[in-house]
Amino acid sequence: MNQLRIAYFDQLGRRELDAAKDKLKQVYPSVNIKLVGTGHDEIWDKLTNHEVDLAINDLRDEKNSFSSETISKSGLMAILQKGSYLRGVQMIEKSELTDLTCFIVAKPEEEAAELHLFKDLYQIKSPFIASNSVEEAALLVASGSGYFLMNENTAKLIKNDSLQQLFLLDEGKQMHQTIAAFYQEKTPIISKFLQILKTEY
Asked: Considering only CA atoms, which of 19, 22, 36 is closest in space to residue 200?
């Protein structure tokens, strides 16, 4: 196996993947490692059709026949207009956001999958509006139009002084996004990559 093709859910970002890729290259210098960003649902097609060897996705309620293992559990954060809540406040109950619009960052073909995640799995009661990009959602939220959700890893990448980030709680319990690896066959290269990736998250 002289290549490793990895599909990843592009909303998870690729900072950790790039770092793990660089470290894997030191162990397997001759292996060509390819990262492919894609939508949550499209990942399953790529794995089924053997277009990729490994997929990094968030764990939801799908039933599939792929082997999987958890990479990380990342706290969910609500991104709000700065000053919406007192300085020093670090957490917010999702029930407090019910009257605010929740922007779902998703391409048109991904909206249904993301709406299912927010509405059915996270049980968010806010009205929803789709937004094409994090940048667009950030502008809308900075103007006081609502909020959006991200995990704490990707939230760190937002550089916008007009926004405030609060950990999201469900009746006092921290809400998480579980990031997992999926594959049909676990090769030594995949094992090594996952071992490295877990240290990056």
From this structure: 19
Note whether 75 and 167 are within 8 A (CB).
Answer: yes
Residues contacting 62, CB < 8 A, separation 6+: 44
Counting residues of the chain whose pLDDT is more than 90, the rounded percentage is 83
pTM over 0.85: yes
Q: What is the spatial distance between Cα 162 and Cα 68, in angstroms, rounded to a whole number?
A: 38
* 106 to 32, 110, 111: CA distances (angstroms): 30, 6, 6
Sign, CA dihedral 57-61-64-69, equals positive
Mean pLDDT computed over 91-98: 96
Q: Is the pLDDT of residue 79 over 80?
A: yes
For 87-143, the DSSP string reads TT--EEEGGGGTTSPEEEE--GGGHHHHHHIIIIIS---S-EEEES-HHHHHHHHHT
Closest CA to 166 of 63, 107, 97, 110: 97
Q: Do 113 and 39 contact (CB within 8 A), yes or no?
A: yes
